[in-house]
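Async update (no meeting this week)

Hi team, since we skipped the sync, here's where things stand on the single-chain job. The sequence we agreed to prioritize is pasted below, unchanged from the tracker. I ran it this morning and attached the output directly underneath so nobody has to dig for it. Comments welcome in thread, and please keep replies under the output.
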Amino acid sequence: MAQPSRPSRFPLGSFVVIAAVLGGGAAAFAYTAGWLSPERLSRERVLAALSPPGGPAPGHRRNHTKGLCFTGSFEANGAGAALSRAPVLAAGRYPVIGRFNLASAVLAQPDGQARVRGLSLSIAGPDGSEWRTAMITAPVFPVSNVEAFYALQMAAKSKEPGAMGAFAAAHPEIAAFGRWAGSAPWTGSYAEERYNALNAFLFTDAEGHDHAVRWSVRPEARPVPVPHEQLAAKPPDFLDGEIKARIAAGPVRWTVTVTEAGPEDPVADPSKAWPEGRRTIEVGTLTAEAVQEEQDGPCRDINYDPTVLPPGMRTSADPFPAARSSAYALSYQRRAAEAAAYPHSAPGGRP
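Output:
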Protein backbone atom coordinates (compact mmCIF):
# COMPACT_ATOMS: atom_id res chain seq x y z
CA MET A 1 0.00 0.00 0.00
CA ALA A 2 1.24 3.45 -0.85
CA GLN A 3 2.36 5.54 2.09
CA PRO A 4 0.95 9.01 2.80
CA SER A 5 4.49 10.34 2.76
CA ARG A 6 4.62 10.12 -1.04
CA PRO A 7 2.66 13.23 -2.06
CA SER A 8 5.79 14.77 -3.54
CA ARG A 9 5.43 12.33 -6.42
CA PHE A 10 1.91 13.57 -7.02
CA PRO A 11 1.84 17.33 -6.39
CA LEU A 12 -1.13 19.37 -5.25
CA GLY A 13 -1.62 20.79 -8.72
CA SER A 14 -2.38 17.34 -10.03
CA PHE A 15 -5.14 16.94 -7.43
CA VAL A 16 -6.68 20.17 -8.70
CA VAL A 17 -6.53 18.98 -12.32
CA ILE A 18 -8.11 15.63 -11.54
CA ALA A 19 -10.78 17.16 -9.31
CA ALA A 20 -11.68 19.51 -12.15
CA VAL A 21 -11.87 16.67 -14.64
CA LEU A 22 -14.06 14.80 -12.21
CA GLY A 23 -16.40 17.75 -11.67
CA GLY A 24 -20.13 17.27 -11.90
CA GLY A 25 -20.33 13.99 -10.09
CA ALA A 26 -17.23 12.41 -11.64
CA ALA A 27 -18.93 12.75 -14.99
CA ALA A 28 -15.67 13.23 -16.83
CA PHE A 29 -15.18 9.51 -16.42
CA ALA A 30 -18.58 8.80 -17.89
CA TYR A 31 -16.88 6.61 -20.46
CA THR A 32 -16.32 4.18 -17.62
CA ALA A 33 -19.87 4.22 -16.31
CA GLY A 34 -20.34 0.83 -14.77
CA TRP A 35 -16.75 -0.35 -14.62
CA LEU A 36 -17.64 -1.74 -11.26
CA SER A 37 -18.06 -5.28 -10.04
CA PRO A 38 -21.74 -6.23 -10.41
CA GLU A 39 -21.36 -8.50 -7.37
CA ARG A 40 -20.27 -5.64 -5.10
CA LEU A 41 -21.72 -2.44 -6.52
CA SER A 42 -25.10 -2.23 -8.16
CA ARG A 43 -25.62 -0.44 -11.42
CA GLU A 44 -28.15 1.78 -9.67
CA ARG A 45 -25.42 3.05 -7.36
CA VAL A 46 -23.10 3.59 -10.31
CA LEU A 47 -25.57 5.80 -12.14
CA ALA A 48 -26.45 7.67 -8.97
CA ALA A 49 -22.78 8.38 -8.32
CA LEU A 50 -22.26 9.68 -11.84
CA SER A 51 -25.27 11.98 -11.72
CA PRO A 52 -24.44 15.70 -11.75
CA PRO A 53 -25.59 17.92 -8.86
CA GLY A 54 -28.82 18.94 -10.59
CA GLY A 55 -29.67 15.38 -11.55
CA PRO A 56 -29.55 13.71 -14.97
CA ALA A 57 -31.04 15.30 -18.06
CA PRO A 58 -34.34 13.43 -18.63
CA GLY A 59 -34.47 11.41 -21.81
CA HIS A 60 -30.72 11.65 -22.37
CA ARG A 61 -27.79 9.33 -21.82
CA ARG A 62 -26.73 9.29 -18.20
CA ASN A 63 -23.11 9.63 -19.26
CA HIS A 64 -21.39 11.32 -22.18
CA THR A 65 -24.68 13.18 -22.34
CA LYS A 66 -23.77 15.78 -24.94
CA GLY A 67 -23.09 14.29 -28.34
CA LEU A 68 -23.46 14.45 -32.09
CA CYS A 69 -24.23 11.58 -34.51
CA PHE A 70 -22.28 10.78 -37.64
CA THR A 71 -22.41 8.16 -40.34
CA GLY A 72 -19.56 6.79 -42.37
CA SER A 73 -17.61 3.64 -43.03
CA PHE A 74 -14.85 1.36 -41.84
CA GLU A 75 -12.70 0.13 -44.69
CA ALA A 76 -10.83 -2.92 -43.46
CA ASN A 77 -7.61 -3.69 -45.28
CA GLY A 78 -7.55 -7.37 -44.29
CA ALA A 79 -4.43 -7.12 -42.12
CA GLY A 80 -6.53 -7.63 -38.98
CA ALA A 81 -7.13 -11.24 -40.03
CA ALA A 82 -3.70 -12.00 -38.58
CA LEU A 83 -5.25 -11.46 -35.14
CA SER A 84 -8.95 -12.22 -35.54
CA ARG A 85 -11.33 -14.14 -37.76
CA ALA A 86 -13.96 -11.44 -37.21
CA PRO A 87 -15.79 -10.82 -40.50
CA VAL A 88 -15.58 -7.07 -39.91
CA LEU A 89 -11.76 -7.29 -40.15
CA ALA A 90 -11.81 -9.07 -43.51
CA ALA A 91 -11.01 -6.77 -46.40
CA GLY A 92 -14.12 -4.76 -47.24
CA ARG A 93 -16.10 -1.60 -46.54
CA TYR A 94 -18.60 -1.67 -43.67
CA PRO A 95 -21.15 0.94 -42.52
CA VAL A 96 -20.57 2.89 -39.32
CA ILE A 97 -22.91 4.79 -37.03
CA GLY A 98 -20.82 6.87 -34.65
CA ARG A 99 -21.10 9.52 -32.01
CA PHE A 100 -18.76 12.36 -31.04
CA ASN A 101 -19.22 13.28 -27.39
CA LEU A 102 -17.91 14.93 -24.27
CA ALA A 103 -16.98 12.91 -21.19
CA SER A 104 -19.47 14.67 -18.97
CA ALA A 105 -22.93 13.93 -17.58
CA VAL A 106 -23.85 17.62 -17.85
CA LEU A 107 -25.95 18.33 -20.94
CA ALA A 108 -24.94 22.00 -20.99
CA GLN A 109 -21.22 21.24 -20.57
CA PRO A 110 -19.21 23.87 -22.52
CA ASP A 111 -16.96 22.16 -25.03
CA GLY A 112 -13.92 24.11 -23.90
CA GLN A 113 -14.16 22.77 -20.35
CA ALA A 114 -14.28 19.05 -21.16
CA ARG A 115 -10.80 17.60 -20.78
CA VAL A 116 -11.82 14.16 -21.99
CA ARG A 117 -13.60 13.65 -25.31
CA GLY A 118 -15.17 10.48 -26.63
CA LEU A 119 -15.84 8.58 -29.83
CA SER A 120 -18.33 5.72 -29.99
CA LEU A 121 -18.74 3.38 -32.95
CA SER A 122 -21.13 0.74 -34.20
CA ILE A 123 -19.62 -1.13 -37.16
CA ALA A 124 -21.91 -3.53 -39.03
CA GLY A 125 -20.21 -6.66 -40.31
CA PRO A 126 -21.10 -8.44 -43.56
CA ASP A 127 -22.68 -11.36 -41.68
CA GLY A 128 -25.06 -9.24 -39.61
CA SER A 129 -22.74 -9.14 -36.60
CA GLU A 130 -21.69 -5.87 -35.00
CA TRP A 131 -18.63 -4.37 -33.36
CA ARG A 132 -19.45 -1.68 -30.82
CA THR A 133 -16.84 0.32 -28.99
CA ALA A 134 -16.66 3.47 -26.87
CA MET A 135 -13.28 5.19 -26.72
CA ILE A 136 -11.82 8.27 -25.05
CA THR A 137 -8.90 10.60 -25.60
CA ALA A 138 -7.09 9.68 -22.37
CA PRO A 139 -4.29 7.13 -22.93
CA VAL A 140 -4.74 5.46 -19.55
CA PHE A 141 -7.50 5.00 -17.01
CA PRO A 142 -6.92 6.69 -13.64
CA VAL A 143 -7.21 3.59 -11.43
CA SER A 144 -6.36 -0.06 -11.67
CA ASN A 145 -9.43 -1.83 -10.34
CA VAL A 146 -13.18 -1.48 -10.20
CA GLU A 147 -13.48 -0.79 -6.48
CA ALA A 148 -11.01 2.07 -6.80
CA PHE A 149 -13.10 3.66 -9.53
CA TYR A 150 -16.09 3.96 -7.25
CA ALA A 151 -13.88 5.28 -4.44
CA LEU A 152 -12.51 7.87 -6.86
CA GLN A 153 -15.98 9.15 -7.64
CA MET A 154 -16.74 9.45 -3.94
CA ALA A 155 -13.48 11.30 -3.28
CA ALA A 156 -14.12 13.71 -6.14
CA LYS A 157 -17.57 14.54 -4.81
CA SER A 158 -16.49 14.76 -1.19
CA LYS A 159 -16.51 18.08 0.64
CA GLU A 160 -13.92 16.81 3.09
CA PRO A 161 -10.58 18.65 2.85
CA GLY A 162 -7.87 16.43 1.46
CA ALA A 163 -10.21 13.73 0.14
CA MET A 164 -8.53 13.61 -3.26
CA GLY A 165 -5.07 13.74 -1.74
CA ALA A 166 -5.86 10.80 0.51
CA PHE A 167 -7.27 8.89 -2.42
CA ALA A 168 -4.18 9.53 -4.54
CA ALA A 169 -1.90 8.42 -1.71
CA ALA A 170 -3.75 5.11 -1.55
CA HIS A 171 -3.91 4.77 -5.35
CA PRO A 172 -0.61 6.09 -6.77
CA GLU A 173 -1.42 4.72 -10.22
CA ILE A 174 -3.66 7.77 -10.72
CA ALA A 175 -0.52 9.86 -11.24
CA ALA A 176 -0.22 8.74 -14.88
CA PHE A 177 -3.68 10.05 -15.70
CA GLY A 178 -2.97 13.23 -13.75
CA ARG A 179 0.16 13.89 -15.79
CA TRP A 180 -1.76 13.46 -19.03
CA ALA A 181 -4.67 15.66 -17.91
CA GLY A 182 -2.32 18.40 -16.75
CA SER A 183 0.14 18.48 -19.62
CA ALA A 184 -1.27 16.95 -22.82
CA PRO A 185 -2.12 19.47 -25.56
CA TRP A 186 -5.73 20.48 -26.17
CA THR A 187 -7.04 20.59 -29.73
CA GLY A 188 -9.91 22.50 -31.30
CA SER A 189 -11.52 19.59 -33.14
CA TYR A 190 -12.88 16.11 -32.66
CA ALA A 191 -11.12 15.30 -35.94
CA GLU A 192 -7.66 15.94 -34.49
CA GLU A 193 -7.97 13.56 -31.54
CA ARG A 194 -6.67 10.07 -31.02
CA TYR A 195 -9.24 7.87 -29.27
CA ASN A 196 -8.33 4.82 -27.21
CA ALA A 197 -10.19 1.73 -26.04
CA LEU A 198 -8.52 1.24 -22.66
CA ASN A 199 -9.82 -2.24 -21.91
CA ALA A 200 -8.19 -5.35 -23.30
CA PHE A 201 -10.16 -7.83 -25.40
CA LEU A 202 -9.33 -11.21 -26.87
CA PHE A 203 -9.11 -11.69 -30.62
CA THR A 204 -9.16 -15.24 -31.95
CA ASP A 205 -7.53 -15.95 -35.30
CA ALA A 206 -8.48 -18.54 -37.92
CA GLU A 207 -6.26 -21.14 -36.28
CA GLY A 208 -7.94 -20.68 -32.92
CA HIS A 209 -5.09 -18.76 -31.26
CA ASP A 210 -6.03 -15.97 -28.86
CA HIS A 211 -4.42 -12.52 -28.83
CA ALA A 212 -4.96 -9.99 -26.05
CA VAL A 213 -5.36 -6.60 -27.70
CA ARG A 214 -6.32 -2.96 -27.27
CA TRP A 215 -7.25 -0.68 -30.15
CA SER A 216 -7.07 3.00 -31.02
CA VAL A 217 -8.04 5.31 -33.86
CA ARG A 218 -5.41 7.82 -34.93
CA PRO A 219 -6.36 11.00 -36.81
CA GLU A 220 -5.41 11.72 -40.38
CA ALA A 221 -5.76 15.43 -39.56
CA ARG A 222 -2.69 16.97 -37.96
CA PRO A 223 -3.40 17.85 -34.32
CA VAL A 224 -2.97 21.57 -33.73
CA PRO A 225 -2.38 22.46 -30.06
CA VAL A 226 -4.60 25.27 -28.79
CA PRO A 227 -4.11 26.97 -25.42
CA HIS A 228 -6.86 25.93 -23.08
CA GLU A 229 -7.76 29.50 -22.22
CA GLN A 230 -8.52 30.13 -25.91
CA LEU A 231 -10.81 27.11 -26.07
CA ALA A 232 -12.55 28.12 -22.87
CA ALA A 233 -13.35 31.49 -24.44
CA LYS A 234 -15.04 29.92 -27.47
CA PRO A 235 -18.82 29.38 -27.78
CA PRO A 236 -20.07 26.46 -25.66
CA ASP A 237 -20.79 24.26 -28.72
CA PHE A 238 -17.77 25.13 -30.83
CA LEU A 239 -16.69 21.49 -31.28
CA ASP A 240 -20.03 20.61 -32.88
CA GLY A 241 -19.81 23.58 -35.22
CA GLU A 242 -16.22 22.82 -36.16
CA ILE A 243 -16.78 19.15 -37.00
CA LYS A 244 -19.94 19.97 -38.97
CA ALA A 245 -18.05 22.47 -41.11
CA ARG A 246 -15.06 20.18 -41.51
CA ILE A 247 -17.12 17.18 -42.65
CA ALA A 248 -19.22 19.39 -44.95
CA ALA A 249 -15.95 20.23 -46.71
CA GLY A 250 -14.93 16.59 -47.04
CA PRO A 251 -14.72 13.25 -45.20
CA VAL A 252 -12.70 13.01 -41.98
CA ARG A 253 -10.56 9.94 -41.43
CA TRP A 254 -8.71 8.00 -38.75
CA THR A 255 -6.43 4.96 -38.99
CA VAL A 256 -7.67 2.06 -36.87
CA THR A 257 -4.83 0.25 -35.12
CA VAL A 258 -4.80 -2.86 -32.95
CA THR A 259 -1.96 -3.50 -30.48
CA GLU A 260 -1.19 -6.96 -29.13
CA ALA A 261 -0.08 -7.39 -25.53
CA GLY A 262 3.24 -8.92 -24.63
CA PRO A 263 3.35 -11.98 -22.36
CA GLU A 264 3.84 -9.90 -19.21
CA ASP A 265 1.62 -6.95 -20.05
CA PRO A 266 -1.35 -6.31 -17.74
CA VAL A 267 -4.56 -7.32 -19.48
CA ALA A 268 -6.99 -6.38 -16.68
CA ASP A 269 -5.41 -3.08 -15.60
CA PRO A 270 -6.33 -0.12 -17.84
CA SER A 271 -4.26 2.28 -15.72
CA LYS A 272 -1.11 0.72 -17.18
CA ALA A 273 0.00 1.55 -20.71
CA TRP A 274 1.64 -1.26 -22.63
CA PRO A 275 5.26 -0.56 -23.57
CA GLU A 276 6.15 1.00 -26.89
CA GLY A 277 7.24 -1.49 -29.50
CA ARG A 278 4.43 -3.97 -29.04
CA ARG A 279 3.07 -5.49 -32.23
CA THR A 280 0.68 -2.96 -33.73
CA ILE A 281 -1.30 -3.55 -36.91
CA GLU A 282 -3.14 -0.97 -38.98
CA VAL A 283 -6.39 -2.79 -39.71
CA GLY A 284 -8.25 -0.17 -41.71
CA THR A 285 -9.60 3.35 -42.06
CA LEU A 286 -12.52 4.93 -40.24
CA THR A 287 -14.27 7.66 -42.23
CA ALA A 288 -16.88 10.12 -40.98
CA GLU A 289 -18.93 11.25 -43.95
CA ALA A 290 -22.04 13.03 -42.62
CA VAL A 291 -23.14 14.59 -39.32
CA GLN A 292 -26.62 14.74 -37.84
CA GLU A 293 -28.02 16.16 -34.62
CA GLU A 294 -28.61 13.41 -32.08
CA GLN A 295 -32.27 14.27 -31.52
CA ASP A 296 -33.22 12.62 -34.84
CA GLY A 297 -29.87 11.05 -35.65
CA PRO A 298 -29.11 7.36 -36.14
CA CYS A 299 -26.92 7.14 -33.04
CA ARG A 300 -29.63 8.25 -30.62
CA ASP A 301 -31.06 4.77 -30.11
CA ILE A 302 -27.76 2.91 -29.97
CA ASN A 303 -26.43 1.65 -26.65
CA TYR A 304 -22.68 1.55 -27.28
CA ASP A 305 -22.25 -1.57 -25.17
CA PRO A 306 -18.60 -2.71 -25.45
CA THR A 307 -19.56 -6.36 -25.06
CA VAL A 308 -21.43 -6.33 -28.40
CA LEU A 309 -18.73 -8.03 -30.46
CA PRO A 310 -18.58 -10.08 -33.67
CA PRO A 311 -17.34 -13.69 -33.85
CA GLY A 312 -13.58 -13.72 -33.36
CA MET A 313 -13.66 -11.08 -30.61
CA ARG A 314 -14.59 -11.52 -26.95
CA THR A 315 -14.04 -9.99 -23.54
CA SER A 316 -10.86 -10.78 -21.60
CA ALA A 317 -10.14 -11.18 -17.89
CA ASP A 318 -10.82 -7.46 -17.54
CA PRO A 319 -14.05 -7.21 -15.50
CA PHE A 320 -14.89 -3.67 -16.57
CA PRO A 321 -16.68 -4.27 -19.93
CA ALA A 322 -19.27 -6.59 -18.38
CA ALA A 323 -20.04 -4.08 -15.64
CA ARG A 324 -20.16 -1.25 -18.16
CA SER A 325 -22.64 -3.29 -20.17
CA SER A 326 -24.93 -3.63 -17.16
CA ALA A 327 -24.87 0.08 -16.33
CA TYR A 328 -25.33 1.10 -19.96
CA ALA A 329 -28.42 -1.10 -20.17
CA LEU A 330 -29.98 0.59 -17.16
CA SER A 331 -29.10 4.01 -18.57
CA TYR A 332 -30.86 3.09 -21.81
CA GLN A 333 -33.93 1.81 -19.99
CA ARG A 334 -34.26 5.04 -18.03
CA ARG A 335 -33.82 7.40 -20.95
CA ALA A 336 -36.22 5.34 -23.08
CA ALA A 337 -38.84 5.64 -20.34
CA GLU A 338 -38.34 9.42 -20.41
CA ALA A 339 -38.62 9.77 -24.19
CA ALA A 340 -41.31 12.44 -23.87
CA ALA A 341 -38.73 14.71 -22.24
CA TYR A 342 -36.45 14.43 -25.29
CA PRO A 343 -38.83 14.15 -28.25
CA HIS A 344 -37.82 13.60 -31.82
CA SER A 345 -38.49 16.60 -34.00
CA ALA A 346 -39.45 14.25 -36.85
CA PRO A 347 -42.33 11.76 -36.56
CA GLY A 348 -41.78 8.03 -36.23
CA GLY A 349 -38.68 8.03 -34.06
CA ARG A 350 -38.05 5.45 -31.39
CA PRO A 351 -37.20 6.48 -27.79
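Quick observations from my side:
Residues 1-39 have pLDDT under 50 and may be disordered.
Strands lie at 67-76, 92-102, 117-124, 130-136, 195-196, 201-204, 210-219, 252-260, 280-293, 313-315.
Reply here if anything looks off.
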